[in-house]
Amino acid sequence: MTETETIAYDVVVLGAGPVGENVADRTRAAGLTTAVVESELVGGECSYWACMPSKALLRPVIAQADARRLPGLRQAVQGPLDADAILAHRNYFTSDWKDDGQVGWLDGIGADLYRGHGRLTGPRTVAVGDKVLTARHAVAVCTGTRAVLPDLPGLAEVGPWTSREATSAQSVPGRLVVVGGGVVATEMATAWQALGSQVTLLVRGKGLLNRMEPFAGELVAEALTAAGADVRTGTSVKSVTRADGTVVVVTDTGDRIEADEILFATGRAPRTDDLGLDTVGLQPGSWLPVDDSLRVTGSEWLYAVGDVNRRALLTHQGKYQARIAGAAIAARASGATDLDAGPWGAHAATADHAAVPQVVFTDPEAAAVGLSLAEAEQAGHRVRAVDVDLSSVAGAGLYGEGYKGRARMVVDLEEEILRGVTFVGPGVGELIHSATVAVAGQVPIARLWHAVPSYPTISEVWLRLLEAFRDN
Fold this sequence. Notes:
Number of helices: 16
Number of strands: 21
Structural class: alpha/beta
Distance between the termini: 78 Å
Shape: globular
């Protein structure tokens, strides 16, 4: 019989993805002893099955699309992409699914790594293998989410792709059905269509990217169709079977579609079903509600950071939360009782409510921060949307012939600040941080006039937006 060893730490972190790594970094920087527990690869979903591999697949796709917009370069890039080289490059960015480098980083900050499934066994106590880790100050749950598959008879036998398979596949399927209309669905449809798949995109709703302004999904759908994808909105999957390697999809309209693979990008669920939440009075499998310091509602020691709290399912937002949580844990461990927890304070993740940025790496890119027009109106703000055609900016014409895009800012008419900004068009992902600063900083419209955009860049859209607001 194996003897159980009990080891005490100041902080125990469950999950070694980017969020858990950042919590550990901040608590170690504050001098707190920290243990990190990970059942898979250090670096988590983002490093191996999401952000990094997906963008490694998409970058050559976008670069080729941009090159084709330029006279003198267009003819040089008309051939197909080298899919094998791109897949190999993607493998490089995942370190071939080995985590030695990230383990070395954890060692470098002085955190102790425990490999295995960590499970709460009571307040401030985590069991992993034959060891029990106790936390003097905090346990941080940073276990993220998993893909959700629909309840379709026989789906398991089909062997469907989720986001993990879509970002790690080692060959290009001849025909790919993608089910969903969100970020994963649109990005993977973009990537695999360009790599040589014939993509059919099935979207249950009326359009794509329904969490952004409606025109974002419209422009992305138009571009996917132009690239050769078959985009079908208002369509649900009724059944899926596989016979002799071929996937057969039947839709609610009676259409029959054959493919080599099918990807379901239809939602995420928290990885909390086997964490021992019941031992501390919480429901296994549930999202974990938190306050703005990321402490679980009703607890003095348990924190839930990143996707698992459902505030903003984005890697960069989870890392932001981790910095806030780490600072709050350190402050409380030092005996502080009066945290800087007001809006935009050092111990408050205010941006989760007011200034969440996101980029969708399709062609065109879609980027947004803050509230959409509909969200701002629903929140009770008196606002006005100001729209500008991005092609009217000189920098867009220089970026590429036939540049097509749109920008919107949502202006709070009472406070005269921006509640939200959306850009759609080639290259706009690099514009969104300026909008994030404006929204998070609550920069007055009058002051934005003094932020002069360089000519001739696409950033000059800021001037066009301000002029449209002033003149209408």
